[in-house]
Write a structure and sequence with these properties.
Organism: Halorubrum lacusprofundi (strain ATCC 49239 / DSM 5036 / JCM 8891 / ACAM 34)
Strand content: 5-15%
Mean pLDDT: 89
Pfam families: HTH_20
InterPro entries: ArsR-like_HTH (IPR011991), HTH_ArsR_DNA-bd_dom (IPR001845), WH-like_DNA-bd_sf (IPR036388), WH_DNA-bd_sf (IPR036390)
GO molecular function, one term: DNA-binding transcription factor activity
Radius of gyration: 21 Å
Helix content: 55-70%
Protein name: Transcriptional regulator, ArsR family
CATH superfamily of the largest domain: Winged helix-like DNA-binding domain superfamily/Winged helix DNA-binding domain
CATH class of the largest domain: Mainly Alpha
């Protein structure tokens, strides 16, 4: 006889590739991504900012963390400068991370917005599948690791990836900022 039986719903979805997930296993790397999202910095500058934020790491350790993030494709060299007979590298993150918790009681405050969003997304997804469903299923089949696995989760991943990329594009073009500033 079971001592506890509970229906545990999915409350959160995190989508990333395994290489990026591994790179984010260290909280210092998440801080580095956050710092480099808004400003390009040298290893020395990252080291100083980490110290200011209470992370006392050796400069060689900071360099290691930046290299892990670079290898995972989350940080790039943004600029090179000649400096004292050598080259100074400036790094910038191409990844934005949101590590927030909504305030207590926000579920109730946002419930109408959630319902509206759900209905709008349902309509969008129906249209998306009507127009591009074959392409989505084709890509999901290519992702499928074996003949016994279904493609449902892969299709969900592709949809989430499309939504993330669309939001990213709107952010990069300034359209998202325009919408948010018009609402104020």
């Amino acid at each position: 006889m079971a001592l506890l039986k509970s229906d545990v719903p999915i409350r959160e979805v995190v989508t990333t590739d395994p290489e990026k997930a591994k790179a984010l296993e260290n909280d210092v790397r998440a801080k580095i991504i956050d710092m480099l999202a808004d400003e390009e910095m040298t290893i020395e500058g990252i080291h100083e900012e980490l110290q200011r934020r209470g992370e006392d790491k050796a400069e060689t350790t900071v360099r290691h963390h930046v290299n892990v993030l670079k290898d995972a494709g989350m940080v790039e060299i943004a600029r090179l400068e000649e400096a004292g007979g050598g080259t100074r590298k400036y790094y910038k993150s191409n990844t934005r991370m949101f590590s927030y918790d909504l305030p207590e009681g926000s579920d109730q405050t946002l419930s109408a917005a959630q319902e509206h969003t759900t209905e709008e997304l349902r309509t969008l997804l129906e249209s998306l599948y009507e127009t591009h469903g074959d392409d989505i299923e084709l890509v999901a089949e290519e992702m499928k690791p074996c003949e016994y696995c279904g493609t449902q989760h892969y299709e969900e991943f592709i949809i989430r990836e499309l939504l993330n990329r669309a939001l990213l594009e709107l952010g990069e073009t300034g359209d998202l900022d325009d919408v948010l500033s018009q609402a104020r």
